[in-house]
Design goal:
single chain, Jelly Rolls, twelve-stranded mixed beta sheet, mainly beta, 12 helices, Immunoglobulin-like, 4 domains
Length: 844
């Protein structure tokens, strides 16, 4: 492939105590390369990690509608678990039998506490005879007996934080026929044991559902508060309480039902050009019935039904479709709506419909979403609803993604049908396919505007993937990297992860003709209940913090050039690595399988391995009659051969799938604890492909071989062979070579350069992932004049394991400084473990 404006040269490196010297980095400003899309960097929001409820959405009360215990639609409850319908998965055509734990009583009272003083009170969350609203029928019932005081308290999302002088709007509903006692509402500082804001209410009548409101002003700052509704009891009474909501008046841009200001502002700091919403896996749902329904997120928040999220908690739908579009407008972003493609999540139940009438219903739902955002209110019902909600003008919806992480023949049929109709009806919308974009995946896709591959990997992968898009063949569609993060082998994140992401981003930016957009994921996490370890922004009730990865994203967005220019280096020469010495094993991923006839050839001899020799590390293993069987549905099960490792060896065996969604694992190069090493994943990714991956702590990591299409049949014995040498590992299936893996290797320095027309500046970006300084001579060709004065922006850390925290949020932040030694030829030393941007004033 001819890569215009990109040349990669071999670099001779010489190590020294003071640093690493390299040949010159030559930047030719006259050799214009690919443009960098103005929408290149955006954000992806999903209701995960309490990113919305308890995060960006400003509601302070948790479980405000007493609906947390309501079962996900289409599921049944028994024996402490919820069970999905027993339906075939679109990915495997086998029944997934998906289930999850469910603590009914704990969910009912989540966030709430009832106390009585001087009287007795019985309480329960249940459905009254006359609910407040049909969409949220449950309420808190209080039966009071005696004279005294009853307190209904909500602790919020792990504490409520208030600021001195700021006002908070309370709204709740009460149905208490005959109640004549005193009613007080207050914000109570649990940490200091005092009330910081209160008001006494005097409702005229409570004989039916009555809306009560109050404005509470905080007398002081407080970080760990709760909301209290205090009833002065004077006898016997029965009362129902529902929809208790507390909102700061000071939301982002002062909007009602708005967003938490500090969280919205840290997102605004990324200068995002687009926002993807509402997900993520929740778009598909654990089952189709559990999917997000955007129409249910409109209107008065009190009437919004909400839905249990497959990430383990109920979403109020408070941050709904309208709020998403409004936030896009407020930040000057384009909107990207992710639509369900009539498929449930393949990693859960994976149920689907192929019924033409049902498929048309899903298609119409996408049409309605587009019309709500950009339609003419005089011509369209859903556009009229937008106008009635206070926004007559169109919202900035530009992109629609059809599905999320979907793949395979069923998805291709659905996508072709939907795209074929929608593109004709809405030619101005960019429609996105969720597959990776390679020839094998895309061969049956008739047409798409864009594809959306995702990467969650370790640092080695991203360092090695700096040139991934240099090598990809151009097609008639572009790429949106909708989800990516270095989240393996880095704990909850660190500087090494940020550096590897920066290296990957340079490669994406350099290939701006192909990669048009990218967004890190997940975006937000409330640290009190994370679903994922690595997330871009951390928060609790009163603080927000961007990780080192956040500042990489921010630097890239703030220093996006209009177009690339030619550089002679894109990375220094990678270090050569060999596969580590180790032992072998077998396993599965969400699949049941049997293994037999295992032979190991090492050190010049071949021996039969008794299945009793293998030790189960994870999963449910049983050895019987020469067959080793794994019967659980866990991810990354493993049974490994203990003892000393081998340097070069061959393992042969037979494997048979007996159930589940994927194929087999054959491990190699495992350390003594069988926690780190490599695996051939045969029939992985929903039984669609085969490749080698790294393994760390029963979690698969980056892919270190080509991915080839392989589907494993249930009930059939396969002959497998893995041949491991120092420089390569080869997999054979039924005697046929499938793929060859090489030990991951990566460079230590990475480069990209471009030009900012408005500023009249060359923008040179350098990642130094080494622990010593990197000294180089830079040559600027093609410039009529180079101004000596410019600026340098550097993000660096002392150690690769360093990271920001909520208590130390600015340990790693970019530092900008003036620089006065720029010239056509100049030397510069790049800090260890750093991302650096040089901005040089030039005329051409």
């Amino acid at each position: 492939m001819n890569r215009k404006g990109i040349f990669i040269f071999t670099v001779a490196l010489a190590s020294a105590m003071a640093g690493v010297d390299a040949q010159s980095l030559r930047v030719d400003l006259k050799q214009r390369g690919h443009e960098v899309n103005e929408d290149m960097y955006g954000i992806f929001f999903e209701e995960i990690n309490h990113a919305g409820d308890g995060g960006l959405y400003a509601e302070m009360v948790q479980n405000r509608g007493f609906e947390e215990h309501v079962l996900p639609r289409g599921m049944v409850y028994r024996d402490g678990k919820i069970y999905a319908p027993n339906l075939p998965s679109y990915a495997t055509h086998e029944k997934a039998d998906w289930s999850d734990k469910w603590d009914m009583e704990a969910k009912k009272m989540l966030g709430w506490r009832v106390e009585a003083e001087g009287c007795r009170v019985a309480h329960e969350v249940s459905e009254p005879e006359y609910p407040l609203h049909k969409n949220t029928p449950n309420a808190m019932k209080l039966e009071i007996d005696g004279a005294g005081k009853v307190t209904l308290a909500n602790s919020g999302y792990w504490g409520m934080a208030v600021k001195e002088g700021e006002k908070y709007d309370l709204r709740f509903y009460l149905n208490a026929p005959g109640y004549k006692g005193i009613l007080t509402v207050e914000i109570y500082d649990v940490e200091k044991g005092k009330t910081v804001g209160s008001e006494t209410l005097h409702p005229a009548s409570l004989d039916h559902w009555t809306e009560l409101t109050a404005t509470l002003q905080a007398a002081s700052d407080a970080r760990h508060c709760e909301l209290r509704i205090v009833f002065g009891a004077s006898g016997q009474s029965v009362m129902w309480v529902d929809y208790v909501s507390l909102f700061p008046q000071n939301t982002f841009k002062g909007r009602e039902n708005g967003l938490r200001k500090d969280v919205a502002e840290i997102l605004a700091g990324l200068q995002p050009q687009f926002m993807r919403w509402p997900g993520g896996c929740i778009v598909e749902g654990a089952t189709l019935d559990n999917r997000v329904r955007w129409k249910e997120t409109l209107g008065d928040p009190m009437t919004r039904r909400g839905e249990w999220s497959l990430w383990g908690y109920r979403s109020t739908y408070g941050f709904g479709y309208h709020e998403f579009l409004q936030f896009c407008e407020d930040l000057g972003m384009d909107g990207m709506f992710v639509a369900n493609a009539a498929l449930g999540c393949s990693f859960r139940n994976g149920d689907y419909t192929d019924d033409p009438a049902e498929l048309e219903r899903y298609l119409q739902d996408i049409r309605d979403a587009i019309d709500y955002a950009i339609g003419d209110p005089s011509e369209n019902e859903w556009a009229r609803r937008r106008a009635e909600a206070g926004h007559a003008e169109p919202f900035p919806l530009k992109y629609v993604e059809i599905g999320n992480e979907n793949f395979g023949p069923v998805y291709v049929r659905h996508f072709n049908y939907m795209y074929g109709k929608l593109k004709k009806e809405y030619p101005q919308i960019v429609f996105i396919n969720t597959m990776g974009g390679n020839d094998d995946e895309m061969k049956d896709v008739v047409k798409t505007d864009m594809v959306d591959p995702h990467w969650y990997v370790n640092p080695d992968f991203f360092f090695g993937a700096n040139d991934l898009f240099d090598k990809r063949q151009r097609k008639d569609f572009t790429v949106y990297v909708g989800e990516y993060a270095c989240n393996a082998e880095v704990g909850s994140g660190n500087m090494l992860a940020a550096l590897s992401e920066a290296a990957f981003m340079l490669g994406m930016e350099r290939n701006g003709d192909m990669v048009q957009m990218a967004s890190y994921a997940p975006l937000l996490v409330n640290v009190n209940q994370p679903n994922w370890a690595c997330n871009l922004i951390w928060l609790d009730s009163y603080r927000t913090m961007g990780r080192a990865s956040y500042y990489v994203q921010k630097m890239m967005a703030e220093n996006r050039p209009d177009y690339n220019v030619q550089v002679n280096l894109t990375q220094t020469e990678p270090e050569k690595k060999s596969f580590q010495e180790g032992t072998v094993g077998v396993g599965t991923w969400n699949t049941q399988a049997e293994f037999r006839n295992i032979r190991l050839t090492a050190r010049g001899s071949t021996r039969e391995v008794s299945i009793q020799e293998l030790q189960g590390r994870r999963g449910t293993w049983k050895a019987d009659a020469g067959v080793l069987a794994q019967s659980s549905s866990e991810n990354c099960t493993m049974s490994a051969l203990p003892g000393e490792g081998y340097e070069e060896y061959t393992m042969e065996l037979q494997a048979r799938k007996t159930g589940g969604t994927e194929g087999f694992f054959v491990f190699f190069g495992l350390d003594e604890a069988s926690r780190k090493g490599y695996v051939f994943n045969i029939g992985g990714w929903g039984n669609s492909g085969t490749a080698a991956q790294t393994v760390d702590g029963f979690s698969t990591g980056n892919i270190i071989s080509p991915t080839v299409p392989v589907t494993i049949e249930t009930g059939r014995w396969y002959d497998l062979k893995v041949e491991v040498r120092k420089d390569a590992a080869t997999l054979y299936v039924d005697g046929k070579e499938m793929c060859v893996a090489h030990a991951p290797s990566f460079a230590k320095q990475f480069f990209a350069a471009g030009y900012d027309e408005q500023a009249g500046e060359a923008v040179i970006k350098v990642v130094n992932a080494d622990t010593v300084p990197y000294k180089t001579r830079l040559v600027l060709d093609g410039a009529a004049k180079v101004n000596a004065s410019g600026k340098v922006i550097t993000l660096k850390a002392d150690k690769a394991t360093d990271e920001n925290t909520l208590d130390e949020p600015e340990k790693i932040v970019p530092v900008e400084k003036a620089y006065s030694k720029f010239a056509r030829k100049f030397s510069y030393t790049f800090e260890p473990l750093s991302v650096t941007v040089l901005r040089v004033k030039t005329t051409r």
